[in-house]
């Protein structure tokens, strides 16, 4: 595996990162990509749904919407117009741990785009009239989400695993909590979270000259660094080992979801080991679970296994779509196959294949400036100041023996949370 890693690494020109911290605690990271057609400016903030206090559920995502409604210098819609006039585009996303806002623009207009983005994010107007209008938009988004059976299954599964913690509830919040929010509540959340130590600006692509000086003299360097704001209530993350069966109206096929807790995102060595294990088990036709359950036994329509990597604790999620009559057979077969990975041999070609898949997955994600800015921004925000390909250095540490001793035992049937969802009317 060491040879495989070195061969892959030698064929990639890794983007060298430059990282520094402004006086107010805001972190900055540059990822030069001179040949990239567009420059990505990505503002990150540790202001995800896990930072919401009781009664604020859904506020982080709602604020993401409201940011685009204007600032102290930009009317509603003016930001989009100006970014488009620069030849660019913009977007944003809210997660459990963080939120980020980004623009893609030609490098020649990057400084102007930086100023526009920082003003929009750090000085939102949060006008009451816009607040009410945009709340209706978010309420409709929640209604549409609740009308999708597959999304309901995942939401109920995460709640089953992490009940009592923000990770176990919908990022969108609920219609009830949204209706109680006020512009003042949102301003308080923004003041509490969107301040220096919680923020990071990531720029990938062709980097403008004198960019450090530009940022040191920007609104980013003057964003709030006070500590007197109310802190969040952070409940302990407890994983619940249990099993439940539910019925969901309009669900096309039965769903089997199995989850196992693993280390938080900061423990990248274990995350990479888990990535190898899940790739061996369920990525591609020749993986053990897909080959046995879908190709040979034809018990399932699809089977996927992914890692939800989060700052307080991560989760391996296996999801199966199959007929209702096959769901229990599939469940039993899954646990038998995972047990065989502990007690039986792992073939060298399986390890080699999983290694290649994990390496390629990370390496190919570094081709676009938007992806590079996102990865660099997220890892800098969470104090993982490392090169972009650094996680690959952990792969050679995981051979078959270590995977069998440390990773596959974590996937034991007695350590998991299981949800079986069947088509039909709601039942407990």
The total domain count is 2
* CATH superfamily caption of the largest domain: Metalloenzyme, LuxS/M16 peptidase-like
Helix content: 40-55%
Question: Low-confidence stretches at least 5 residues in length (pLDDT < 50)?
Answer: 1-12
Count of DSSP strands: 11
Q: Using only CA atoms, what is the Rg?
A: 23 Å
H/E element string?
A: HEEEHHEEHHHHHEHEEHHEEHHHHE
Beta-strand residue percentage: 15-25%
Largest sheet: 6 strands, mixed
Q: How would you describe the shape? A: globular
The CATH topology of the largest domain turns out to be Cytochrome Bc1 Complex, Chain A, domain 1
Quick check: average pLDDT?
93
Counted by DSSP, the helix tally is: 15
Distance between the termini: 48 Å
CATH class of the largest domain: Alpha Beta
What CATH architecture label of the largest domain applies?
2-Layer Sandwich
Give the class from helix and strand content and strand pairing.
alpha+beta
What topology, given as strand order, has the largest sheet? 1-2-6-3-5-4
Explained architecture:
By secondary structure, the chain is α+β, with helices and mostly antiparallel strands. It folds into 2 domains: 208 residues, 2-Layer Sandwich (Cytochrome Bc1 Complex, Chain A, domain 1); 181 residues, Cytochrome Bc1 Complex, Chain A, domain 1, CATH 3.30.830.10. Helices cover 41% and strands 18% of the residues. The strands form 2 sheets. It has a 6-stranded mixed β-sheet with strand order 1-2-6-3-5-4, with helices on both faces. Strands 7-11-8-10-9 form a 5-stranded mixed β-sheet, with helices on both faces. Strand 4 and strand 5 form a beta hairpin. Helix 10 packs across helix 13. The chain is globular. The protein starts with a helix and ends in a 5-residue tail after the last strand. The relative contact order is 0.18.
């Amino acid at each position: 595996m060491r040879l495989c890693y070195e061969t892959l690494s030698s064929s990639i020109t890794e983007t060298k990162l430059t990282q520094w911290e402004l006086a107010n605690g805001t972190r900055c990271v540059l990822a030069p990509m001179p040949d990239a057609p567009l420059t990505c400016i990505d503002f990150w903030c540790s202001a995800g749904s896990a930072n919401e206090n009781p009664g604020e559920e859904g506020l982080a995502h709602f604020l993401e919407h409201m940011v685009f409604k204007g600032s102290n210098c930009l009317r509603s819609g003016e930001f989009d117009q100006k970014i488009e006039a620069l030849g660019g585009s913009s977007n944003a996303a809210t997660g459990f741990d963080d939120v980020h806002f980004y623009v893609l623009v030609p490098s020649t207009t990057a400084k102007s785009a930086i100023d526009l983005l920082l003003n929009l994010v750090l000085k939102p107007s949060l006008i009451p009239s816009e607040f009410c209008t945009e709340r209706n938009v978010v309420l409709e988004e929640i209604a549409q989400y609740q009308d999708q059976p597959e999304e309901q299954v995942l939401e109920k599964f995460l709640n089953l695993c992490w009940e009592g913690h923000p990770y176990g509830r919908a990022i969108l919040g609920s219609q009830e909590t949204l209706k109680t929010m006020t512009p003042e509540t949102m301003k308080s959340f923004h003041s509490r979270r969107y301040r220096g130590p919680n923020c990071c600006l990531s720029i990938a692509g062709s980097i403008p000259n004198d960019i450090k000086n530009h940022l040191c003299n920007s609104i980013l360097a003057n964003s709030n660094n006070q500590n007197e704001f109310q802190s969040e209530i952070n409940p302990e993350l407890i994983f619940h080992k249990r099993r439940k069966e539910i019925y969901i109206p309009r669900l096309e096929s039965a769903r089997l979801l199995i989850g196992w807790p693993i280390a938080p995102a900061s423990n990248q060595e274990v995350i990479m080991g888990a990535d190898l294990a899940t790739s061996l088990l369920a990525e591609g036709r020749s993986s053990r679970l897909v080959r046995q359950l879908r190709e040979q036994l034809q018990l399932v329509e699809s089977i996927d296994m992914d890692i939800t990597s989060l700052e307080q604790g991560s989760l391996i999620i296996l999801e199966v779509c199959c007929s209702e009559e096959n769901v229990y057979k599939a469940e039993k077969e899954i646990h038998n196959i995972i047990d065989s990975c502990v007690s039986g041999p792992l073939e060298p070609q399986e390890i080699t294949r999983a290694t290649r898949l994990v390496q390629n997955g990370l390496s190919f994600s570094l081709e676009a400036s938007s992806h590079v800015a996102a990865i660099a921004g997220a890892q800098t925000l969470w104090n993982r100041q490392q090169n972009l390909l650094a996680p690959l250095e952990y792969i050679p540490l995981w051979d078959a023996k270590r995977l069998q001793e440390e990773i596959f035992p974590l996937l034991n049937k007695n350590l998991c949370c299981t949800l079986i969802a069947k088509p039909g009317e709601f039942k407990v």
